[in-house]
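User: quick one, fold this
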Amino acid sequence: MFGCLAIYVQDKIVLILRDKPVNTEDNGVWLATTEEHHASLRCDFPGMRSIKVLGKKVTAWQVLPADAHDFEQAALRACELVLAGDPRIGKIPGARRPRAPKKKKKTKKSRARYRKLLHSLPKSLDSTTSREAHAFHSCC
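Assistant:
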């Protein structure tokens, strides 16, 4: 996920491990949680904070920063909570919507070019091609 390593337990995403050379202040272990659980999780993880790279002042996801003095202890504690099935950590990802294919719009310039090309075709085309050309001409 986003060049990071996502960790799932069954159908829930629980953690993301991030170690990137850009925006290094957000490197560490990301906890999949919700705002309602921030206060109680902060008792276990005093150094936990919102993720700056996500652009909001308060983010549902929280980070245990890799540069914190207690990072290793906090990361191990997060793993213990995940293994214990702590309901404060983990989210079932929403279904991804398929991307709609980009529709290529015809411009007035391309329509004019096709009309010019159509009129330059020889009159001796067979009837099938003429019908197809007429159908194309009428839609443009």
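User: anything notable?
Assistant: DSSP finds four helices and five strands in the chain.
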